[in-house]
Amino acid sequence: MTRQQLWTAATVVGVLLLAGPTAAGQASMLDVSEASAFMGTWVITMETPRGTNEQNVTIRDEGGKVAARVEGGRGGAIDITDISKDGDSLVLTFERSFQGNSIDIVMTLTLDGEMIKATQDIGGGQFSMSGSGKKR
Which CATH code for domain 23-135? Predict the structure, then answer.
């Protein structure tokens, strides 16, 4: 390898190391104590124009910070690291690929007794779904 090739390879490896791990396994900056009531796996049924859509939303403790995973519905499972609180609600922000395009999704979860209410704003509010569920 030439000196230039070695320098380029070292630069690429350095950038990858600085970028950190992939989304899988990462947690948000939100402390678990702020979301303890949300912890667990929730089975949420959303109403869509095409009928009902069931999703499993798992909220977990990862090193004292909140992490989440959404499974079911359209597309595969997705790990979520952009998690925040808005009043009494937990807000999960993520992207999903649809027909080759990346679409922003904001899922807001609000506890209602032993149930959870969920809304999803898709594409910056171009489309919205709502539903509810319970802990598995």
Answer: 2.40.128
Q: Three-state SS for 12?
A: helix
Distance CA 33, CA 17 (A): 30
The radius of gyration of the chain from alpha carbons, rounded to an integer in Å, stands at 18
Report the amino acid identity of residue 7.
W
Convert the pLDDT of each residue in 5-53 to its tens digit.
333 222 222 222 222 233 345 679 999 999 999 999 999 999 888 889 8
Q: What is the value of pTM for the model shown?
A: 0.78
Tell me, what DSSP letter sits at residue 18? H
Residues 117 and 128: their CA atoms lie apart, in Å, by: 14
Domain residue extents for the chain: 23-135
